Each structure stands twice: as C-alpha cells, then as structure tokens.
Amino acid sequence: MLVWLALILVVLVWAAWLFGQVFTGRYRVFAYITLLVAAGVSSLSLYYHQGAHQELKAAAELHQRLSGFNLKQLANKADQKEITIQELLAELRLRTESDPNSFEKWRELGNIFLRFGEVAKADQAFTRAVTAKPGSESRIEFARYFMDQGSPEAFENAERHINIVLMNEPNHEGALLMQGINHFKQQEYQAAIDYWQQLLQYREQGSDSHQLISKQIEQAKRQLKLQELNHITVVVDNIDSLLLTRYKKAFFLVRKEQGGPPVAVKSIEVSKLNTPQKLTPSNVMLPGVSLWDSKNVYIQVRLSQSGLAQPEPGDRFGQTSLLESITPSENFHVEITETVE
User: Has residue 125 been placed in a domain?
Assistant: First the structure.
C-alpha cells in the first residue's frame, strides 16, 4: 500500500511541474484534485487487483498441493493438524463446486462436515446430493448418517429427512423402520413403538423380519416402563409470559451448590418447552456420577439466545430452591425470571 501512496505523490509532483504555468487560481486547484482522484482510483484498482491475484494464486497452489489426496485423507490431515480447517474447507468447496452434480462428492463432503461437528453444513451438502440424485433412499441414507453422529441437532435433521419420505410415501417400510430407530435412540420409546407397529403390518407373520421387529417393540416397551420411573420431570410454569422467539435452545440442568460443571444436561428446541421435560441418568455429563446420589443441587432451566451450552449475557433462567437430593419420579416446577448478566 505504501508503494501506491508514493506513486500518488509522484503524480502530484509531476502535475505541479507540468501544469504550474498552464493553470492558475481555481483552475490549478481543479486540475490537482482531478489528478489526485484519478491517481487514487487507479492505485486502489491496481492494489485490489493484485490482492485478488494473490488470493487466486494461493488457492491454486493449495489445490495443487492437495490434489493427490482424496477427501478422507484430507480430513485425516486436518485431524492431525497437517492442514488447517480453513484450508480443508477451501479445498472441499473447490472440488464440489467444480462438479456440482456429483452425488458422491456432496455425500462425502457431508460426512466430513459431520466428522467435524458441522451439522448444519453437512445438511446443506446432503441436500445438494439429493438434488443431484433425488429419491427416498438418498434421504434415508443421510438420516442414518445423522443418527450415527448422535447430537440433538443431528437427530432433528434425521427426522426431517425421513418425514419428507413419509409425506410422499406414508407406507415406506425403510422410512418407518428408521424413524423408529431415530426415536428409540432419543429415548422417545412410545414414538418408536408406534412407527414399528405400523411397519409390522407389512411383514409376514412368523417371518424373520416380523420376529426381529417384534423384539424391537418389546425392548422399547421395557425401556418405556423403566423410563416411567427412572427420571425426574421438570415443568416451566410461566411459559406464556416469555418471549420465546428470542431464543434458540432451552437447557435443563442439574447443578451442584458449590458450582463446577453440571451433573446433568438436556437441551431442547424452545418450541417443546410447553411440554414437561424428563431428565434421566442418560443426561448425566460427568463420568462415574449417579444422578440419584447427587446431593445439594439445583434444577435449573435456561433459555439461550445463541443456542450454546455456555451461559451468555441476555439469557434467561430460573431454578428450584436447594435440594438435598433428588429421587426418581419426582416432579419439579420452575419459573424463568432471572437474566444472565
């Protein structure tokens, strides 16, 4: 940039010498200003052109250096810190956009995003893959990838892809099976039973698949009975007074009186806040810690504006009074009245 400023000064000196005897008064000032603007615009144009050229050159060099590796090898290199995540993403975008109709490339890109926890970007890649290869089987395959990732956001994306299949084909057996699995993994056992029972009517009585699905239903029923006892229920009493559209997630937590990381955490979409929420031992965050053995704790509910687990200024929360202990099947009521400072 200093080079271009120096060039502007040289132009102005040259202009003063060239036009000093030609223009006088306000005409001389006008000539100087015109030359200054022209020199500045030209210099900036050259500067930005050179900057864009350098970026393109750097991208080309990066692509040449990484062109011999497939996507999985590139992901491994990012894992091992041999390349940065930014370099990985730049190379992935270049490869997929160079062949935008490649189902395989978009699918592999989505899986790599899932590997690095980028669920939303993975869904975008999978959606492009479905555009390249429309069909129910593609969506069911991607739903399975989301379920394997296992985060709440991934389960939501899995459910959405399967629901799209079921809207077009309500009796699609693969979609019914996968939606049952999706709900079972989220401990929503009654929903899993409903989908599997619908599927069961399409299987021949006594066949291997009929017996297998029947066993899955029985397992879900057993888990449902255990769930009826092995949980606490938390109800938010003042939902109607809260402006829920400002928040992305609601977090239900069991916190120790002395502070530190929460004993248990459950996150949900704020749209589900009007239904009682259950916390179970599966929501425990700390290894070797029992939810039922925890002493001197609070039950807290926090509304997050960003959707992140870490409290941030502007989040709203409420909590119970201090509890000496908690026991299965207890119900707790919370009013969200406080604001994180």
Answer: no
